[in-house]
Design a protein that fits this description.
Length: 587
């Protein structure tokens, strides 16, 4: 033991001269080198740090105590009392050396090549320069102490904040531990309660689905039952502390199963109703398509009818023009015939005058002969009467007529018109009936006392009556042609009936349906009163008695209309469909 302590003391006296050995391997055999083991030993011995310092370029180094003992004699007393490390820091920082020229370690200071010699030269310079160095050191000391005082204050503040933080963290830790214990005890119940509350969204969804159903009374009652059951389950879980996790989970699972079952049932009902609504919608779509199809067909039919009406109107206009042309030709022929008849009449009148003169001459001769015979008491034979040429040329007009209806009563004519199936007799009765109506209306107009001009008894527009007055002169041939016309024709012209000549601006329409040559239906539409509908066989005394040829309606442009137009207005004001007398008798 004594020899060992002696060796140690010798080593201490000799300084730091020692050899650091590196063990190449743990097995202690030669020619084996473990790189990681050697690197660890170098790190632990500080060789890595020394090599790094050498690499950075700080070969010169010395301890703080050596540097303090070396230069303390050059400085004043207040600087000699400084700590060696503080003394070294103050000198090196105050001598305006660059930071990269030296580095401070834990116990030593390191210099770049040549910088220690420069430092030594500055410290051993003249006293004047040394005074400036001492002033710089004092300035740095004051600055560093002020910075350290600030750092201490900041450190104290940070310490206070850290203490407060730790206190707060301690409270949080206590709260967290208590919460953990509570959650550990009540966590399953809280989770189940939270899950049960989440079932409210499912119940709301059930209510939304139920609101879409048509029959939702029973479904709403079931949903209300689920709500009450959920409330009772939650209350039981809250109040019963002895309930374990499995019991709570079983109650929640039962609620979830009921909610899912109710959801599936409602969705099934909703799907069924949607299917029914879809079927109903498809049915309505089919009906709408059929309706649209019918509307389209109706529009096409209307277009066809309009086209047919247009063609019929064109035909009516062409027929009117043809009739007008024929009428003009007939009027020209009538004028020629009238001139010829006038010439024949003049010739007949001349022959009559000659015949009368001859008769007068014969009468005078006969009287002379009789007077002479009386004077001579002789006898004279009467000469046979001469045959008059005019009597030979005249023929009985009634011989042409097949029926003599001049002595028939009105009731007989009316009944024959309504019941006869003989077309010729029917036309003859109608002709005789309208002839009598003309005579009656002419007599009535002639014997009526008029104080002011009035038109309240008009049975046709004035234009029609004036046209009839202008065309009163017709030949017998024209009359026969008129009786042969049995077509159905319809006309419309303006009609104004002024009772007291006050409302002269109001004008209505006069409609007439001609069955052959005579009016079968008549209609008056006025803006200030109701429609007047007249039918032949019932309202004959108020209807127009003129024939179609006498009215001159066929010669008025735009007066003739289609049957559909007349029937539309007729049925609009409550008129019944028309049946011809011949068709009525057949039925």
């Amino acid at each position: 033991m004594r020899s060992a302590s002696t060796n140690i003391s010798k080593l201490m006296l000799q300084g730091t001269n020692f050899i650091r050995c590196i063990k190449p391997n743990n097995k202690m055999v030669d020619h084996q080198f473990d790189g990681s083991l050697s690197l660890m030993q170098l790190k632990c011995s500080g060789m890595i740090s020394v090599l790094e310092l050498m690499e950075y370029g700080y070969p010169s180094r010395t301890s703080f105590a050596d540097l303090h003992s070396m230069y303390k004699d050059y400085l004043p007393k207040e600087l000699k009392q400084l700590n060696p490390k503080t003394f070294c820091e103050a000198m090196l920082h105050s001598l305006k050396l660059q930071e990269k020229d030296f580095k401070f370690g834990i116990t030593k200071v390191f210099f770049r090549p040549g910088k220690f010699a420069e430092f030594d030269r500055i410290m051993k310079s003249d006293p004047e320069n040394l005074k400036s160095v001492v002033a710089a050191i004092k300035k740095w000391l004051i600055k560093s102490r002020w910075i350290k005082s600030q750092f201490c204050v900041l450190t104290i503040i940070k310490m206070k904040n850290k203490i407060a933080y730790r206190r707060k963290a301690l409270i949080i830790m206590q709260k967290t531990v208590r919460g953990y214990l509570v959650r550990r005890k009540y966590g399953p119940r809280i989770t189940i309660l939270r899950n049960i509350r989440t079932l409210d969204s499912s119940l709301k969804k059930l209510e939304e689905i139920a609101s879409q159903l048509k029959q939702k009374a029973s479904v709403v009652n079931e949903i209300d039952g689920l709500k009450s059951k959920m409330a009772s389950t939650m209350e039981k879980i809250k109040l019963d502390d002895k309930m374990d996790r499995k019991a709570v989970e079983s109650m929640y699972a039962e609620l979830v199963a009921q909610v899912n079952q109710q959801m599936a049932s409602l969705q099934k009902k909703l799907q069924e109703e949607k299917i029914a609504e879809e079927q109903e919608r498809l049915r309505k779509i089919r009906e709408e398509m059929e309706r649209q199809k019918k509307l389209k067909e109706e529009e096409e039919r209307k277009l066809r009818d309009e086209e047919e009406h247009r063609k019929m109107k064109v035909e009516m206009e062409a027929r009117r023009k043809a009739e007008e042309l024929e009428r003009k030709k007939q009027e020209a022929a009538d004028r020629l015939l009238a001139e010829e008849l006038h010439k024949q009449q003049e010739k007949l009148e001349q022959d009559e005058r000659k015949y009368q003169e001859q008769l007068e001459q014969e009468r005078q001769d006969r009287e002379l002969a009789l007077r002479l015979a009386q004077e001579t008491n002789g006898q004279v034979e009467e000469s046979p009467p001469l045959i008059r040429k005019s009597d030979a040329s005249r023929k009985d007009v009634n011989a042409k007529n097949k029926y003599d209806l001049s002595k028939w009563k009105y009731s007989e004519l009316r009944d024959t018109i309504n019941t006869s199936c003989d077309i010729e007799l029917l036309e003859a009765c109608r002709h005789e009936f309208h002839r009598r109506l003309k005579v009656y209306h002419a007599w009535k107009a002639k014997n009526r006392k008029r104080t002011v001009t009035t038109y309240e008894d008009e049975r046709a527009p004035r234009s029609v009556l004036e046209s009839a007055a202008r065309s009163a002169q017709r030949t017998a041939q024209q009359k026969v042609a008129v009786l042969d016309n049995n077509g159905q024709r319809y006309f419309r012209i303006p009609f104004q009936r002024n009772n007291n000549c006050v409302d002269q601006g109001k004008r209505g329409w006069w409609y007439a349906h001609f069955d052959g040559q005579y009016v079968a239906r008549q209609m008056e539409l006025h803006p200030d009163k109701g429609a007047i509908l007249l039918v032949a066989g019932k309202d004959d005394m108020q209807m127009c008695e003129l024939s179609l040829e006498e009215t001159g309606l066929t010669r008025k442009r735009g007066a003739e209309i289609l049957e559909s137009e007349f029937n539309r207005e007729w049925e609009k004001y409550g008129g019944k469909p028309y049946v011809r007398p011949a068709d009525r008798n057949n039925h």
